[in-house]
Amino acid sequence: MKPIRKANVANTADPVPAAQLERDVSEMMDVITSGGIAIFPLDLTYAIVGHRPDAIRRIFAAKARSFDKPCGMFGSWRLCRELHDVPSEKHEIVRILVEEEQLPFSVVAPFRPQQPLLRAVDPDVIRYSSKLGTMDMVINGGYWLDEVARQSIQRNVAVFGSSANRSLNGSKYRLEDIEPEVREVADVSFDYGLSKYSTPLGLSSTIIDLGDFSVVRVGHRFDELVATLAHRFGIMLPRP
Length: 240
Description:
Layout: E1 4-6, H1 18-33, E2 38-41, E3 46-50, H2 53-63, E4 72-74, H3 77-83, H4 88-100, E5 105-110, H5 116-119, H6 123-128, E6 130-131, E7 134-139, H7 143-155, E8 160-163, H8 180-183, E9 188-191, E10 207-209, E11 214-217, H9 222-233
Parallel strand pairs: 1-9, 2-9, 4-7, 5-10
Antiparallel strand pairs: 2-3, 3-8, 4-8, 5-7, 6-7, 10-11
Helix pairs in contact: 1-7, 3-4
């Protein structure tokens, strides 16, 4: 039986001891660095991730996901600032949305392939995680994601993957709700209860293209993102 690490919490927003969180994320990072796959909790959804090419290919196969639809990177607004090649004023908007407005979302933007974190990534993983010179990064998805981003920088190990569910079947907000085909490929899973933003709609993060502020995907707290961008920056986010 593959290990499941269960925290004594009901919801991903419930606090856990800092030492436990650091230990769990460190174990996850060890697993993916050695070529394995892990499932971990976000406020947005449960995620399935890897670091090496074979792990990413197995994630795609388990999800029945087309390689035409790249996976994304798990990070923070600070990692976005380092990796995404957009004007500084756009990075400032991302920072404000995260730090001041506390909104979760993902961004798509051109990336800097020579940035040290990406330079250490296998070219096949970059190929599976990018499209037309752009890369998706989920940010502000809860304390698990914040710690993943911190340890990614510390170890110089990028984390790639997507929501832990069969493709087009909707996000899963509890570990036990993830389809068996997806759970089976994970070498370790972490159970932190119900995702904070769980919804019957099966949503994940809203994805915004930083190039033109178009909407790639409508997700959690989309209406608040629309209102905030309009009110604070005069950016009218189009509704698909």
